[in-house]
């Protein structure tokens, strides 16, 4: 009879399992570990598994416990087969590789023995390698990178007012509450979301930025939930990682959530209710846990009233609402951000640009309907037109967002009614009051005429009559 190495390992002594394995405290110990962990019987059966291993393998605990480890090699990846083979040979193993979910992990399997040297089980641990950079290569890397515009490349400056809002957001995230960011376009909602999520710090959890305006109904399932490897829709044979899986254990930021169609909103509500999903081409339910931040520059109350935004989605995303103030209400922020942008510009500009006091005064006086994006645009125009010093003539507000002053909301007294006034006088007096009120609210006669839908000459004539 011939014996092979595998046979010798297979005949290694087995020991009785210690009683502490069945103690609830041991389950609590596994659950408290920072990595995915499982206790395996000597025959490869999964006895216990913690929640973090569920997330890494994208398998429910009910599907893991009581099953053989080797059976999950097809759904989780060949790395699982290596671990199962090592357990069969009663060998300790450390291995790294990619799971089918496209997570790069480091796994180790240690054989547990009693005092007599008999093996009674194994401890499997698994953690994600370089989690903050996941995924780290190929086209998938581009899909999950943060968008980089002019504002995004600028170091985020936080004023005392913004600091208070940021602290509110950080506390909400720590407690697992969904955050809705509101504010005009260009107020820095994306940068604020990254700030409260600490995405710029080493070792930060994944921060997945989703531009909802790019998701059509046809793309929603594929982009959000991903494609099952080997399914009929999988052209790459590797599957496709969805935004939800990419954000697992981190933060999912749904930018301009109001751009989603009602159909896509319904799918999002369904996921948020159950915290489970299925990849396209798969019937298996998977679980993902992350913290949610959404943003919009629209009035959600109006959108709900118009029937284009689901109220049940609103209640799930707006647990904590943070309204970011416009730039015109933060003169201290204008100076700080302009200085940061100028330093960035001067890194590649010769000669370096300086702002004249007069140009700086214009920056401070401008109302910025486009907020941070408009400030960036004004400085870029000065860079293109000025030599070494930006002068007042180089201050040019964007054509699509012209400089404007805030309307002066003056109280216009109601017209006095004479005791014996005729109907004609009453109508004329009321008409004059309406015109004067519109002029006060719109800042000029021309703007008032446009708002009222009448010719400027008509407005001037009617305001001059006695």
Describe this structure in words.
Helix 8 packs across helix 9, helix 18 packs across helix 19 and helix 19 packs across helix 20. Strands 2-1-5-4-3 form a 5-stranded antiparallel β-sheet, with helices on both faces. Helices cover 40% and strands 14% of the residues. The chain is of the alpha/beta class. The longest helix is centred in the last third of the chain and has 20 residues. It has 20 helices and 14 strands. It folds into 4 domains: 125 residues, PAS domain (Beta-Lactamase), CATH 3.30.450; 175 residues, 3-Layer(aba) Sandwich (Rossmann fold); 65 residues, Helicase, Ruva Protein, domain 3 (Orthogonal Bundle); 42 residues. Strand 4 and strand 5 form a beta hairpin. Keywords: ATP-binding, Nucleotide-binding, Plasmid, Transcription, Transcription regulation. Pfam families: AAA_lid_14 (PF25601), PAS_4 (PF08448), Sigma54_activat (PF00158). One of its GO terms (biological process) is regulation of DNA-templated transcription.
Task: Indicate the topology.
Layout: H1 5-10, H2 24-32, E1 36-40, E2 46-49, H3 51-57, H4 61-64, H5 73-76, H6 78-88, E3 93-98, E4 104-113, E5 119-128, H7 139-144, H8 160-174, E6 179-182, H9 189-196, E7 207-211, H10 217-225, H11 243-246, E8 251-255, H12 262-274, E9 276-277, E10 286-287, E11 291-296, H13 300-306, H14 311-317, E12 320-323, H15 331-346, E13 354-355, H16 357-365, H17 371-385, E14 389-390, H18 423-442, H19 445-452, H20 456-464
Parallel strand pairs: 6-11, 6-12, 7-8, 8-11, 13-14
Antiparallel strand pairs: 1-2, 1-5, 3-4, 4-5, 9-10
Helix pairs in contact: 8-9, 15-17, 18-19, 19-20
């Amino acid at each position: 009879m011939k014996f092979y190495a595998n046979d010798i390992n297979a005949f290694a002594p087995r020991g009785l399992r210690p009683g502490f394995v069945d103690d609830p405290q041991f389950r609590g110990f596994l659950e408290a570990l920072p990595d995915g962990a499982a206790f395996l019987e000597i025959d490869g059966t999964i006895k216990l598994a913690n929640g973090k291993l569920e997330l890494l393998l994208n398998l429910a605990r009910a599907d893991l416990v009581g099953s053989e480890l080797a059976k999950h090699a097809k759904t989780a990846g060949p790395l699982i087969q290596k671990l199962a083979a090592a357990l069969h040979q009663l060998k300790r193993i450390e291995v790294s590789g990619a799971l089918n979910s496209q997570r790069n992990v480091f796994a180790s399997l240690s054989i547990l023995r009693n005092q007599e040297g008999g093996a009674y089980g194994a401890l499997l641990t698994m953690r994600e390698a370089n989690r903050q950079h996941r995924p780290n290569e190929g086209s998938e890397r581009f899909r999950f990178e943060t968008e980089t515009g002019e504002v995004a490349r600028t170091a985020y400056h936080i004023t005392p007012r913004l600091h208070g809002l940021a602290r509110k957001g950080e506390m909400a995230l720590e407690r697992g509450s969904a955050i809705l960011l509101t504010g005009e376009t260009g107020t820095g909602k994306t940068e604020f979301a990254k700030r409260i999520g600490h995405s710029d710090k080493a070792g930060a959890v994944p921060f997945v930025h989703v531009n909802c305006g790019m998701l059509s109904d046809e793309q929603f399932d594929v982009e959000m939930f991903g494609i099952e490897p080997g399914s009929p829709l999988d052209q790459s044979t590797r599957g496709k990682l969805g935004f939800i899986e990419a954000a697992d254990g981190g933060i999912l930021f749904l930018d301009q959530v109001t751009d989603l169609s009602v159909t896509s909103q319904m799918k999002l509500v369904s996921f948020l209710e159950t915290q489970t999903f299925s990849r396209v081409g798969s019937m298996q339910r998977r679980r993902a846990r992350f913290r949610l931040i959404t943003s919009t520059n629209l009035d959600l109350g109006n959108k709900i009233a118009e029937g284009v935004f689901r109220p049940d989605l609103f209640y799930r995303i707006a647990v904590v609402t943070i309204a970011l103030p416009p730039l015109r209400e933060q003169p201290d922020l204008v100076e700080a951000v302009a200085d940061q942008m100028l330093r960035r510009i001067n890194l590649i500009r010769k000669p370096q640009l300086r702002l004249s006091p007069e140009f700086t005064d214009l920056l401070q006086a401008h109302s910025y309907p486009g907020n941070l994006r408009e400030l960036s645009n004004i400085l870029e125009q000065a860079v293109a037109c000025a030599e070494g010093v930006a002068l007042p003539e180089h201050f040019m507000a964007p054509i699509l967002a012209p400089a404007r002053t805030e309307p002066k909301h003056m109280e216009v007294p109601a017209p006095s009614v004479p005791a014996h006034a005729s109907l004609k006088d009453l109508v004329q007096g009321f008409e004059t009051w309406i015109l004067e009120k519109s002029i006060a609210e719109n800042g000029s006669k021309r703007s008032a005429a446009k708002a009222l839908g009448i010719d400027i000459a008509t407005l001037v004539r009617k305001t001059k009559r006695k």
